[in-house]
Amino acid sequence: MVEQIKILVVEDDNDINQLLCNIIRNSGYVPQAAFSGTEAMLYLEKEEWDLVLLDLMLPGMSGEEVLATIAATNSTPVIIISAKLDQQTKVGMIRTGADDYITKPFDIEEVSARIDSHLRRYQRINKLPSMKKLTFKDIEIDLEAKTVSAQGKELSFTAREYEILVLLLSSPKKVFTKKNLFESVWEEPFYGDDNTMNVHISNIRSKLALVNPNEKYIETIWGMGYRLKS
Predict the structure, then answer these.
(1) Do 29 and 73 meet the contact criterion of CB atoms below 8 Å apart?
(2) Angle (nearest 5°) at CA 28 between 46 and 51
């Protein structure tokens, strides 16, 4: 029996929620509608999801609060779908743990393509062949449990942060350009926007520094990219 892919749709506007659910059904996935942040948390606590589509302006618990909770507890990919257009909000949501940001009004084909892209990437990274664990210094990644620990303490990373770490640990001596990392993780062409990658690398460094502030794990090779610091 093929396991169904389940996507949680958190959107308080009934028409938009139904439209997103229809996009998901037409792609062969199973949607679950939630109309408030509080309702979304009930679904998130009850079962695991392959992807979350999340509006920011929600009744009760805000989308920002829901995102922060997801980012702190698991690596489920989150796509923000919001009418907020300002760059500050977009960067803030990526820093908090969002994996993508789509602005309203949205194009149906674009939403469908983004969903497919995130699910392919998430499934690919969880099916690395012949390896169960990756280690570097005191970092250990359990590829089966999808967990990351440093100095024996489990850390919480977003789906994209996790994928970046897996790539780096898979080739510890390789220098990854920003283009390498972006196109491997996002599966989209890289157009030279350094900010997205800089934010994600900064987040990874900050989380690792919380458990071992005296160790440097990722070094910047100026003019080239990033690699693990030996």
Answers:
(1) no
(2) 40
Instruction: Convert the pLDDT of each residue in 28-65 to its tens digit.
Output: 889 999 999 999 999 999 998 999 999 999 998 999 99
In DSSP terms, 153 is beta-bridged to 150
The whole-angstrom separation of Cα 67 and Cα 158 is 10
35/32 Cα distance (integer angstroms): 10
CATH number of the domain residue 189 falls in: 1.10.10.10
User: Within a domain: residue 110?
Assistant: yes
pTM metric for this prediction: 0.62
Residue 151: other Cβ atoms inside 10 A: 13
Could you tell me the strand order of the sheet in which 51-54 lies? 30-34, 6-10, 51-54, 78-82, 100-103
Domains held by the chain: number:
2
CB-CB neighbours of 152 under 10 Å: 8
